[in-house]
């Protein structure tokens, strides 16, 4: 599977007030929309360190200038090189809550499409949970372009970190 780093380019939806040389800018903006129609983002910090036994939020949000329709997303864990799907869902339209299928007993979906939030909680973290978590999304409005962002989880020993 091909993965792209969704967080690499900071961009904002263009406002009409920004248009100076209308013809040229419009052309450029269309280019930008095509290139950056959807973004997924795990926030400013791309990793977190937690103690075993605790619960951790794996954050992910999306944004789109052209709007979403049937936005598909999933979370995957890179377990020793193999991608394991933790959950997946389709958001029918903006503001409509997804019906999330969960494939992992300690994963809870805590996002809300009202806030473009597709974060999950991982409960009772174990040392085996350490690794890379991939938030993946695809907006059919943009053909089959894939977007993803990686969040890394480090698990530390409760006893050692208490010293
Ligand atoms: C965390 O790991 C330590 C050492 O492996 C263990 O003693 C402790 O019980 C664990 N804590 C939890 C909450 O699982
Ligand atoms: C990771 O994969 C390698 C090679 O497939 C295997 O030898 C090893 O036991 C695996 N480790 C774990 C923790 O599953
Ligand atoms: C987490 O561990 C606690 C204590 O062992 C247990 O009661 C709880 O059901 C676990 N939660 C999940 C989501 O596995
Ligand atoms: C996403 O939702 C979770 C759960 O409500 C919240 O803790 C988190 O801060 C939200 N993230 C963002 C970027 O809004
Ligand atoms: C997007 O990901 C899917 C698997 O989730 C894959 O089948 C498809 O080929 C990918 N598309 C592109 C353009 O990378």
Automatic annotation (TrEMBL):
Keywords: Disulfide bond, Glycoprotein, Immunoglobulin domain, Membrane, Signal, Transmembrane, Transmembrane helix. SMART domains: IG (SM00409), IGv (SM00406). This is Ig-like domain-containing protein. GO terms for cellular component: voltage-gated sodium channel complex. The keyword Nucleotide-binding does not apply. It is a single-pass type I membrane protein. PANTHER family: MYELIN P0 RELATED, SCN4BA PROTEIN. GO terms for molecular function: sodium channel regulator activity; transmembrane transporter binding. It is found in: Membrane. Residues 53-152 form the Ig-like domain. One of its GO terms (biological process) is cardiac muscle cell action potential involved in contraction. The keyword Transmembrane helix applies.
